[in-house]
Amino acid sequence: MHNNPQETERLISDPVPGITAEPHDDNLRYFKVSIEGPEQSPYEKGIFQLELYLPDDYPMEAPKVRFLTKIYHPNIDRLGRICLDILKTNWSPALQIRTVLLSVQALLASPNPNDPLANDVAEDWIKNEEGAKNTAREWTLLYAKKE
């Protein structure tokens, strides 16, 4: 299976608010993604850079998505890997790239420390949610500041 040109075209012509995804010039299966932190979240003043790669078996296999911007979040580890069910066990070929990106954006709005990928961050989040959110805000200003 190969990248669906209509899907790529729709990402560009009908963008999701707060999300941009552009295919790389020399590799149309590799996307540069930026996601604005959702309002009312500790990430709201940031723009986060991600990479999205469509494996050979896409859409039978989930895209690979990774944060390039450093982020303090219980479901995103320091390598930028994301703990999100639709990227693993709940992937369906019916899902589209935009659905995946919306789900990542939703994860920023509602972190789940009970299903962590970054255990230390999750522990902070559970013990002192306000403190963890403050750290997330600080990291957002440090690493994901809007230009």
Automatic annotation (TrEMBL):
GO terms for biological process: DNA damage tolerance; free ubiquitin chain polymerization; protein polyubiquitination; protein targeting to vacuolar membrane. Keywords: ATP-binding, Nucleotide-binding, Transferase, Ubl conjugation pathway. Coiled coil: none annotated. GO terms for molecular function: ATP binding; ubiquitin conjugating enzyme activity. InterPro entries: UBC (IPR000608), UBQ-conjugating_AS (IPR023313), UBQ-conjugating_enzyme/RWD (IPR016135). The active site is at C83. Residues 1-145 form the UBC core domain. SMART domains: UBCc. It comes from the Eukaryota. Its EC number is 2.3.2.23. GO terms for cellular component: fungal-type vacuole membrane; nucleus; ubiquitin conjugating enzyme complex. The keyword Zinc-finger does not apply. Belongs to the ubiquitin-conjugating enzyme family. This is E2 ubiquitin-conjugating enzyme. The lineage of its organism: Eukaryota, Fungi, Dikarya, Ascomycota, Saccharomycotina. The gene is KAFR0A02420.
